[in-house]
Amino acid sequence: MPLTYRGLFRTPEFTPMFAGTSASIGASTLSSLALGTLVYADTHSPLLSALSMFGPSLVQVIGAATLLSAADRLPPRAATAALALLFGLGTAVLAIPGLPIWLLFTVIMTVGLAGSVGGGVRYGLLSEILPGEGYLLGRSVLNMAVGTMQIFGFAAGGALLTVLSPRGTLLAGAVLYLATAAVSWFGLTPRPPRAAGRPSIAVTWRTNARLWSSPPRRYVYLALWLPNGLIVGCESLFVAYEPRHAGLLFAFAAGGMLIGDTVAGRFLPGRWRRRLDAPLRLLLAAPYLVFASHPALPVALAAVTLASIGYSATLLLQERLMALTPEDVHGQALGLHAAGMLTMQGVGAALAGAVAQHTSPALAMAAMAVASVTVTVLLAPGLRGDPQAADASRDVSAADTAEGNVRPETTEIGHHENPKSESSLVSDELR
Fold it and tell me: Do 69 and 332 contact (CB within 8 A), yes or no?
């Protein structure tokens, strides 16, 4: 199990996963900026422009209710490559001149719906490549890649918009998605699905109910979704709060997130990780209280940086979620986390905007911070205790076992024992 960055990148398959994730984030950043610009130029509607950029996050809840069973029931290499190809195709279609606005949004929402499975596939696979405590370090590095690629992606997108055009920038994003597909297909190893059986809405609902039925997991999900979404609502007001320096606020927020992910993923020992997720969630919100006084820019930048360190609580809560979840549904468990988080971020942005409309951006940011602190305090009693993976495995339902939907235990990375039938392991041929 790698416990250093050097060991992490020496682990088979992690490097191509890192490269594919980075390319995918770069592609989505370029594409969303180009799409928002294109829609605003065609419609002069701030609402439609915002929905074109963030609308896919809002359909994540639909995908979570219907498609998430695919995260554990499709070969991960093939599913990752196929999703990247779908995103590339959809992005290329959006670049077609004269595309009606209704068709453009149909494509956006369709791709967003398919994307609801992507987080479960990617991070379920990561839990196999880096089992145990290795997952935390690997996920922290991927989070750092996400933050870094978003910074560079927005910068590169702005440059491409001036050199090319919104449609040309969309095509550049499509090319990056194709690169993601190639890296995933040729860099990852064929693996069988974590669970047998065909994905379906019924299986998705049954597994979601199984995940939600456990009170410890339920509290973890709420802690992953609500404080995070409320503080993203604060960030959504950066432009309204400080139009001339919003880019600086976003950049310093990304820097704080990188610091937090580095420290939590690399340097925190296990005994501290179990104690610090709640303080870090308080840290995520508390600095935003200073915005009630409309502080000077240096103070605002310091507050945003300090607060964003608290995003590292997400890593610690994901580690707790894995300890509470049987291996055969790791993908769907992580997919439910990702879909719920993105949905709540969209809700948080809408709620913050509504409050700011009736008060001011500064007061709305402080109000969202108060709400986040309150939620963290209310959830604290349900998050006490040390989760044990052995205890979590007992909640595998009798129905799942009878249907043969539980994949055999993993003994080594990439090697799966099934004493009944080795030939039953599904190959990487296709979500």
Answer: yes
**Residue 410: strand pairing partners:** 416
Q: Are 429 and 196 a contacting pair, CB within 8 Å?
A: no
Angle at 67 between CA 62 and CA 73, to 5 degrees: 160
Give per-residue pLDDT as tens, 261-278: 888 877 777 677 777 888
Non-local (6+) Cβ contacts of 56 within 8 A are: 108, 109, 111, 112, 115
**Rounded to whole angstroms, what are the CA distances from 254 to 34, 189, 305, 365, 420?**
21, 32, 8, 18, 49
Q: Please check whether residue 132 is in contact with residue 239, taking contact to mean a CB–CB distance below 8 angstroms.
A: no
The total number of residues shown for the chain amounts to: 431
The answer to whether the beta carbons of residues 25 and 146 sit under 8 Å apart is yes
> How many helices (H) and strands (E) are present in the chain, helices listed first?
21, 2
Identify which of 233, 229, 392, 276 has the alpha carbon closest to the alpha carbon of residue 323: 392
DSSP 3-state assignment of 74?
coil
Distance CA 79, CA 125 (A): 11
Q: What is the pLDDT of residues 249-264, one digit of tens each?
A: 877 888 888 888 888 8
Q: Which two tokens stand for residue 91?
A: 């992005």
Largest Cα separation within the chain, whole Å, is 67
Indicate if the alpha-carbon torsion angle 29, 32, 37, 38 is positive or negative.
Answer: positive
CB contact at 8 A, 200 and 62: no
d(CA 201, CA 357): 39
SS3 427: coil
How far is it, in rounded angstroms, from Cα 353 to Cα 361? 8
> What tokens appear for 311 in the block?
């995003």
